[in-house]
Specification:
475 residues; globular
């Protein structure tokens, strides 16, 4: 096959791939994380003898949301496979499938299982209410099918970064060096993203309901009725409006999602470090690009977004505790301020240039106070590592304080204002952007390769092919 240049332009060869893939990842990650949260809600509803209508409603709502998103997400994935990979990146996709055919086949089986389980649950949710153990079991099976589907897709994605020298052995492909860290990283990230998205949607629903209550309320209070459901109650109405009960429910949902978003994100610095270490050991050029090359400053964006998640979450916890008059709300405010300062410290660049190579080329590899371009306070070790430790410690402290207040029934629903809703919308946006930035870093670190050391982007040309390798015949 002649090695002609890939037809197309920047849109078809680059931006289209990014837009479609990142859209699909956001949807797929939410589906997996939402099922995990639905399992927790269903289990809580079963443990409590009297049941918890809020958790039952939340679990059902998550399943309905999954059904609404699933068809669109699957269509995006099929469009990507058929049109973008099959037509624009055909040589690469043929070579990749020749190597990873059985991985794709296993992923297709899990997709079929997911289709059967998700629509069965949706159609029979009400009927299974009297058989809640069976409903919980089906949720577990759905989550398991989704997780294995992600696992096999991660096997392909991680193989492209650390291909073990192009090893075509099935077991070596799915257990390549970065597969397990990537899968753990995404498993945790899926739950955090589902929690953040849930909090964002609940905040918008709460906002809309309070605006509706403001328009229909005739009582005037000094607390500005539209800003909180609790303020509306000051009017002394005998019968509580249905909108007020609905707003209190969405207030609770927002709190639930925010706690998951912040709580599981506390694990990500440890998981991310192990992932980066495997890249350093098995794909050093990609690691160098991320840490010292063209992507080094993008990592500053990533660590800033991580700190923003903890800071926004803690600020929301503080405002909610203060509105409820909960104990230690001032401590929560102090933690939010400390997290902001730690994030600003972690965001410092290690050099005032695009890459470290630019610093060396300019013969300015010395600290800025000596007239150079280096900023030692921005080094990963020990300063950024210390900042990550501080973020995790402060974030864990904040979450613990808030959970203690919740467990002691110190939190009064419906007292949060619109600024708290803005924080939750911001939390959803920050987590979404963080997922996008992480994808950009991972995918661009391989350049100029599609498969590290094996297949180039330009002309989709296979190099280092061995006669015994399946993919070698496509070169």
């Amino acid at each position: 096959m002649p090695l002609n240049p890939v037809p197309g332009d920047l849109l078809t060869n680059g931006l289209l791939v990014a837009i479609v893939v990142l859209l699909h990842i956001q949807i797929a990650a939410f589906l997996i994380g939402a099922t995990s949260l639905a399992i927790v809600s269903e289990a809580i509803g079963m443990v409590r003898r009297s049941g918890d209508e809020r958790h039952d409603r939340l679990g059902h709502g998550l399943v309905k949301a999954e059904v609404y998103l699933f068809s669109f997400g699957a269509a995006v994935a099929i469009f990507f496979m058929v049109v973008i990979l099959g037509a624009i990146w055909g040589r690469f996709f043929v070579a990749l499938q020749q190597i990873t055919f059985w991985v794709f086949f296993a992923e297709a089986l899990t997709f079929v299982a997911e289709v059967v389980l998700i629509y069965t649950l949706y159609a029979n949710w009400g009927r299974l209410r009297v058989h809640r153990p069976a409903r919980l079991g089906m949720l577990f099976l759905l989550n398991l099918a989704q997780w294995w589907q992600m696992f096999f897709i991660d096997a392909v994605a991680s193989f492209m970064l650390t291909p073990n020298g192009g090893d075509v052995n099935f077991l070596d492909q799915i257990l390549n060096p970065t597969q397990i860290p990537l899968t753990i990283h995404r498993t945790v990230g899926n739950i955090a993203w589902a929690g953040a998205a849930l909090a964002c949607i609940a905040a918008l629903r709460y906002w809309r309901l309070t605006r509706s209550l403001e328009r229909t309320s005739t009582s005037q209070t000094a607390l500005h009725p539209a800003r909180s459901v609790g303020a509306l109650a000051v009017g002394g109405a005998v019968a509580e409006p249905a909108e007020m009960r609905e707003a209190r429910y969405w207030d609770w949902v927002a709190q639930w999602g925010a706690m998951w978003a912040v709580g599981v994100t506390l694990l990500q610095p440890w998981i991310g470090y192990s992932y980066a270490k495997e890249i350093q050991l098995h794909a050093y050029p990609a690691w160098f690009t991320m840490m010292f090359g063209d992507l080094s400053n993008v990592f500053l964006v990533q660590i800033t977004l991580l700190g923003a998640i903890f800071t926004i979450g803690t600020t929301y916890f503080w405002r909610r505790m203060r509105a409820s008059g909960a104990a230690h709300h001032r401590r929560q405010g102090l933690l939010a301020l400390l997290l902001l300062l730690v994030t600003m410290f972690a965001a410092q660049p290690a050099w005032f240039a695009p890459t470290y190579e630019n610093v060396v080329a300019a013969h300015l590899a010395r600290p800025f106070w000596e007239g150079g371009l280096l900023n030692p306070l921005g080094d990963f070790i020990p300063y950024k590592v210390s900042a990550l430790f501080a973020m995790v410690f402060l974030g864990l402290w904040s979450l613990t304080v808030y959970l203690r207040a919740v467990s002691r029934d110190q939190m009064r629903p419906g007292l949060i204002g619109r600024r708290s809703q803005v924080l939750l919308v911001g939390l959803g946006v920050v987590v979404s952007v963080m997922m996008i930035v992480m994808g950009v870093i991972r995918e661009n670190s391989r350049q100029p390769f599609l498969i590290s050391g094996e297949l180039t982007i330009h002309n989709q040309q296979i190099i280092n092919a061995q006669p015994s390798q399946v993919g070698g015949s496509t070169g």
